[in-house]
Design goal:
about 240 residues, 6 strands, hydrolase, single chain, exonuclease
């Protein structure tokens, strides 16, 4: 395997509003959400409850993680590059994060590099915040306390694409399109996750979507390093 591809763990998370029923929220949280909703309201027609179901999953204070997909490059018996993927899914967020943490701690944190798309602004801090909310101590790979910028082993494909340009957000789907990588956006997209979870009760569908996203992420990383993508036959689910 090419040395720079070793020890990278690709990550994608799916999040939803922390509660199915807005009215079941703690009164203190309702007050705080009302303040947040005031900044998010596009017009006077949307209630705090409407905005909660549409946007709460984006914020770690009001959402929760239901799925984490991971991917890691591997050597195939043929000598070709492969990608091994695994999905952690659970309605119980604490159990999900505990299992994910246990997986991270099996890998040498001194060499492990985590990679996500917009991960430095979303995936990594979201996971950390939800772990602490669930009284889970942060694993070494996510604990940035006291570390200098150059000591943080986190990669971000959106950052790699920007080349120092911080003007705008570029979606994973757009980059997949311009690099001709098969998209994960087939029968659903990220904006539908809350509906699929709470109204369709289909966590499995979300997990498959999340896994496809982490495959696209790994393929994009290869393209950003000017390598060939991995053929579908070399992508393994464990």
């Amino acid at each position: 395997m090419i040395p720079e591809l070793r020890d990278i763990l690709f990550i994608d998370i799916e999040t939803v509003a922390a509660s199915r029923d807005y009215n079941a929220l703690d009164e203190r949280l309702k007050v705080q959400w009302a303040r947040k909703a005031g900044f998010l309201r596009r017009d006077g027609q949307m209630s705090d409850e409407d905005i909660y179901h549409e946007r709460a999953g984006i914020y770690a204070e009001f959402g929760k993680i239901i799925c984490i997909a991971v991917g890691k490059f591997c050597d195939m018996e043929s000598g070709e590059l492969g990608l091994r993927t695994k999905v952690f899914q659970n309605h119980d967020e604490k159990a999900l994060l505990t299992e994910f943490k246990a997986m991270l701690e099996k890998i040498d944190s001194s060499t492990l590099r985590l990679c996500a798309h917009n991960g430095k602004e979303f995936d990594f801090p979201y996971i950390c915040r939800r772990m602490l909310i669930n009284s889970i101590a942060l694993p070494a790979a996510l604990n940035l306390s006291g570390k200098k910028g150059w000591e943080v082993q986190h990669l971000d494909t959106m950052e790699l694409w920007k080349f120092g340009d911080y003007k705008h957000y570029t979606s994973l789907d757009l980059l997949a399109a311009i690099f001709n990588i098969p998209s994960s956006k087939t029968d659903m997209d990220g904006s539908q996750v809350n509906v699929v979870y709470y109204k369709e009760n289909d966590l499995e569908k979300i997990s498959l979507y999340c896994r496809r996203d982490v495959v696209v992420l790994a393929q994009l990383f290869l393209k950003l390093r000017a390598y060939s993508v991995i053929p579908e036959s070399n992508i393994i689910t464990v």
